[in-house]
Write a sequence for this structure.
């Protein structure tokens, strides 16, 4: 899944403002993929194949791109499980 990890690295740079050299591709772990579909209005929507990836012990500070990300939240494993 090296292509998926490279794409994730690009998105982390573009959307969260990290520097590419802060993100080691070997630290990005592929967890699975899923189909995502959401309607925005009667004309537009999203229908895509998305990937679930995890980076553990990553302590860089994000610089959010406001056109891509409204907010982020750091969670531990229990919090994530509770959210699911």
């Amino acid at each position: 899944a090296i292509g998926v990890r490279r794409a994730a690295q690009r998105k982390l740079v573009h959307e969260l403002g990290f520097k590419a050299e802060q993100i080691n591709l070997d630290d990005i772990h592929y967890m699975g993929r899923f189909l995502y579909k959401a309607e925005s209005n009667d004309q537009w929507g999203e229908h895509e194949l998305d990937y679930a990836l995890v980076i553990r012990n990553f302590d860089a500070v994000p610089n959010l791109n406001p056109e891509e990300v409204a907010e982020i939240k750091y969670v531990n494993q229990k919090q994530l499980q509770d959210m699911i």
